[in-house]
Structure formats: C-alpha cells, structure tokens
Amino acid sequence: MMIREETPNDRAAVRRVIESAFAQSAEAELVEKLGRAGDSVISLVAEDAGQIIGHVLLSRMVAPFPALALAPVSVIPASQRRGVGSALIKDAIDRARSQDWTAIFVLGDPDYYQRFGFDKGAAKGFTSPYAGDHFMMLALSSAPKAASGALCHAPAFAELD
C-alpha cells in the first residue's frame, strides 16, 4: 500500500471510496465542496495494486491559531480493519506538522482517535457546533497559545446533512 497526495485524476475514485465507506453521498459531496472552495489543505489517498482504497482530508478552520479539521476518513469496506485508515491519519498528521499547523480538531470515536494523540480535554475550552464528548484536539507543536476560543469549520460543513 502506498499513501500519496490526491491528484485531479483521482477525484472519481475518491468519490467512490467515500460513498462506499459511508453508504451515502453526503461525505463525498462535503469533500468536493471543500475542494472547490479552496478549503482542502491536505488530501491523501491510499493506493493498493493500482486501486484507491482509502482517503483522508484535512481542511482549513478559523481558530485562535492555525488549525485544521480532520474529516472524513474513508476506507472501502473490503479494506477496513487492516490499518489503512490509521496509516492515512498518521501521514496526514505528519504532513500537517511539517507545514507548521498548530492543531487538528476531529469529531469522532474517542477510543479510536486517542491512539493518535487526540484529546477531548484539550478541545473542551473551544466553542464549536461540534463540541461535546466526541470532539477532540491534537496539538501538533508545543501547546497552542490559546486554550479556548471560537472555532469555525469551513462553510461546507454547515451544509452537511
């Protein structure tokens, strides 16, 4: 398996992966809207034997420091539970860190995302429509200069059903 940046030629395959992973099209439409709006910052695919089997996206947020939102992470059902999603997330985190982003926020299962360093407590001081028990933050460098404040995901998230 190889993880690489998404290219324009991958878009149809990425859409198929996302729709297959979520059994609906809402998340695929979110990814497309984020891309069209220029809010997609890191978009990676996992490729195996010439086929795209996974995708992860980090998008721009408005926050008290340079921050990204992790969503969605998609793996075709036949390749799930084989480490593809974890590899995509780790690579995306490494790339965000190397590009000097301060933090990544995610809404998801704490048992899954805590293994990557995401922390519910770190996100508690921030206001967001997604705040709650499943909202977490990963600091990418030394502690962010702010431990609270308003967060705003890219506008495409507000359109997600």
Describe the overall structure.
This protein has 161 residues and is of the alpha+beta class. It has a single domain, classed as Gcn5-related N-acetyltransferase (GNAT) (Aminopeptidase, 3-Layer(aba) Sandwich), CATH 3.40.630. The chain has helices at 11-22, 26-37, 84-98, 110-113, 120-123, and strands at 2-5, 40-48, 51-62, 67-75, 103-107, 126-127, 135-139, 149-150, 152-153. The N and C termini lie far apart (32 Å).
How can the largest sheet be summarized? 7 strands, mixed
C-alpha termini separation: 32 Å
What's the CATH first level?
A: Alpha Beta
Beta fraction of the residues? 25-35%
Radius of gyration (CA) equals 15 Å
- Assembly type of the chains comes to single chain
Query: How would you state the average pLDDT, rounded?
Result: 95
User: Which overall shape is indicated by the principal axes computed on the Cα atoms?
Assistant: globular
Stretches where pLDDT is under 50 for at least 5 consecutive residues are: none
**The CATH topology is what?**
Aminopeptidase
What's the helical proportion of residues? 25-40%
Q: Helix/strand-derived class?
A: alpha+beta
Q: How many beta-strand elements? A: 9
CATH superfamily descriptor? Gcn5-related N-acetyltransferase (GNAT)
Order of helices and strands: EHHEEEHEHHEEEE
The figure for the number of domains is: 1
